[in-house]
Amino acid sequence: MSIGDMLAATVPMARTLNLEFLETSPEQAVVSLPDQGEYHNHVGGPHAGAMFTLGESASGAIVLAAFGDQLSRAVPLAVRAEIAYKKLAMGAVTATAKLGRPAAEVVAELDAGQRPEFPVTIEIRRADGAVTSEMQVVWTLRPNSKD
């Protein structure tokens, strides 16, 4: 099962919005939100909440791609998120997520018994390439309890 299939199966909101996972690798995740009238805002573009979900889902996809081999000992959790809406989004939009720290650094902190935090940056673009939103989600790998 691909990461996109797994997220669609386990995260109902991703499935509800019909998110399309176009690329999921440890270097980059690309997720698209199709143009769907039922998720529009008052000006006919994608609702801010749908765009936030798109960006957060892209960040989750890259986290799973980069740290999926750590799931037996830690659970990835979003710690905080911020989004800036830059330009009007109309039609389908696509989010591209990138890790803000090398995965090896994060795993080294986990190996040292720490609870690492790391940022994921996301750009959301409309079909003409214009950046409509910029987002950052800070994630952690919470070590599983040994009880």
TrEMBL record:
Domain of life: Bacteria
Signal peptide feature range: none
InterPro entries referenced in this protein's UniProt entry, alphabetically: DUF4442 (IPR027961), HotDog_dom_sf (IPR029069)
Protein name: DUF4442 domain-containing protein
